[in-house]
Amino acid sequence: MPEQIHDRVEACYLQAEAFFKRPFPRPEVSFKLRGQKAGVAHLTENKLRFNLQLYRENQQDFLKQTVAHEVAHLIAHQLFGLSIQAHGEEWQLIMRGVYELPPHRCHNYAVQRRQVQRYIYRCTCPDTKGEFPFSAQRHALVAKGRRYFCRRCKVTLSFTGEQRVE
C-alpha cells in the first residue's frame, strides 16, 4: 500500500523535473500522520507525511490529488523559497501547470472525529451559565496547581466534578 504512494511521489517528481528541466532532491516519506490532515509537507526538512487511514478510504483521489498537492509544496519551496504563501500563486502554478490538477487547498474526505473527554469548570457569574469545558491536558494542569480565571467576574474557575464526552 505505501509503495503506491511512493510510486506516485516519484512520478510527481519526474513530471516536475521534465517541466522545469532541472532535478529536485527526493523527500523522506513518512506515514505517521493521523487525524483530519491527509498529508503534510515539511519544507525545510524535505519531508512528506501521509495519513494511511485517509489513503485507505480514498485511494484514487488521494494518489491523484493529495500526493501531488504535498509534492507541489516541496517543489514550490525549492523553486521560490520560504517567502511564498503556502497555497499562493507559485503553488497553484505547479498544481495547474505541472500536474494539470485543480489547486484545491483542502480535501473533502469523510473524517471521523474522535470523541474527547471534557471536564466542566464554572465561575460565579450570576447572569451567565459560566460553564467552561476543559480538555484533559488543561484539567491536569489545574491538578498541578495552575489556576484559570473567568474574564468577566475574575473569579478562579472551579471543577464541578462533571465530565462529558464531546
Automatic annotation (TrEMBL):
Name of the protein described by the UniProt record: SprT protein
Domain SprT-like residue range list: 7-160
Signal peptide interval: none
Coiled coil: none
GO terms under biological process: response to stress
